[in-house]
Every structure is written in C-alpha cells, then in structure tokens.
UniProtKB/TrEMBL annotation:
It comes from the Eukaryota. Residues 1-18 form the signal peptide. PANTHER family: EXTRACELLULAR SERINE-RICH PROTEIN, SERINE-RICH PROTEIN, PUTATIVE-RELATED-RELATED. Keywords: Signal. The keyword Transmembrane helix does not apply. InterPro entries: Cupredoxin (IPR008972), Ser-rich/MCO-related (IPR052953). This is Cupredoxin. Residues 136-197 are annotated as: Disordered. Residues 171-186 have a biased composition (Low complexity).
C-alpha cells in the first residue's frame, strides 16, 4: 500500500501536467513552429498544416530524411490556404527523443525537421538539422498516404518521393472534368485530397526526378 501511494505521488504530477503542443507545419516557409518541444509521456503534439503540401514523418537521428520503420507518417496534406482542418496528432509515449521531417521534395534537406525532446548535448536538434542538410531521402511507406508526393512548388523538387514504377491505380471517384491521373504523372494527388492539389505546378525537374526515383526504387 505504501508503495502504491508512493507511485501515485510520482505519477499524479505527471498526469496533471499532460499537455498538448501545437506545431505549425509550413506556416513560415520550410519550418515547423516551434522546431522542437519538451514533452513527457502522456503529452500530445498536434500538427497543423499550412500551404502548400507537407508531411509529418518520423525518422531517426541517424537518418533524418528516411522514415523510421514503424514510425508515424501523416501522409501528404496539401492545402491551398492554411490552416488545414485535418490536423495530425502525435502521442508522446516516451521521454526519449523523437525525430521528424517533412517528406516533400527537398524540404528535409532544407531544414524542415522537428524533434520531441532533443538532447541539449550530443544528438542535439541543431546537429539533426545539419545532418538533414546532407541526408538522402529514403522511400516513404507504401499506401495511399505514402505514394508519390504532389510536386512541391516551394522546394526545388530535385528528389521526388518514391514514384511507383508501374501505373498508379486510377481513383474510381475522379471529379468530373478533373485531370484524372494517367499513370505517368509524378504529382498525381491521392483521391481523397482536395482537388486543389492538382493545381500545383510541376517543376521542370519533376519528370526527371520521378524517373530517377523509379530507377532507385528498382
Ligand atoms: Cu514540407
């Protein structure tokens, strides 16, 4: 009994302090705002997406721009005018550091990275940013949220995500008059995303990057 009370005395303050951190994604350029947060288990981090098209993807300190196996991935969240109502919530379950990036184009290399509980020394957030600048972009998880990203208009998209080498499945519910994906476009948006995503410009390097990504994928 005494032990239980002692445990309660330790746990109660933690429960009482459970907090949510609001993080803006892309509101001020290629940024997470704030870029890192101190959190304890039980806290949440709520990401709100701003134009044009970003992700929140969990990675690791060692590979800043590669999805962590079994990690979190919001999928691409295109919006013409932010903030997007459809937020993404990360549940903090550990006091250990958790590392994130945006998987759009070269956003990660451009410094669009985020951390929960980055250490003050050693594997710091600043070092994570520096490592990201020179990091390879790893392939995203398969599935409707992880497919080829709509081309980012703001990122110098020289290394598009893992475009599927084969024809993409054609959405059955294409909007009338919309530009249905033909299977070759590197920027075909997921069917469930706003039609506005189709209006994103395709950088000149988009097709080439898509081909390179396809070759790499093989
Ligand atoms: Cu981004």
């Amino acid at each position: 009994m005494q032990l239980s009370l002692a445990a309660l005395a330790v746990l109660l303050p933690i429960v009482a302090q459970a907090a949510n951190f609001d993080v803006a994604v892309g509101q001020e350029g290629l940024t997470f705002t704030p870029p890192n947060v101190p959190a304890v288990p039980g806290d949440t981090v709520t990401f709100t997406f701003y134009p044009k098209n970003h992700t929140v993807t969990q990675s690791s300190f060692a590979a800043p721009c590669t999805p962590l196996e079994g990690g979190e991935h919001s999928g691409f969240r295109p919006t013409e005018a932010g903030p997007l109502e459809d937020t993404f919530v990360f549940d903090v379950t550990s006091a250990d550091p958790a590392w994130f990036y945006c998987a759009q184009g070269q956003h990660c290399q451009g410094g669009m990275v985020f951390a929960v509980n980055p250490p003050a020394e050693g594997n710091t957030y600043e070092t994570f940013v520096a490592n990201a600048a020179a990091a390879e972009s790893g392939p995203l998880p398969e599935g409707p949220e992880g497919g080829a990203p709509p081309a980012g208009p703001s990122g110098g998209d020289t290394s598009a995500g893992p475009s599927a080498p084969g024809p993409r499945p054609t959405p059955s519910g294409s909007a009338p008059g919309g530009n249905a994906p033909s299977g070759s476009g590197p920027n075909a948006p997921p069917a469930t995303r706003p039609a506005g995503a189709e209006k994103f410009a395709v950088p000149a390097g988009g097709l080439l990057a898509g081909l390179i990504a396809a070759v790499v994928a093989l």
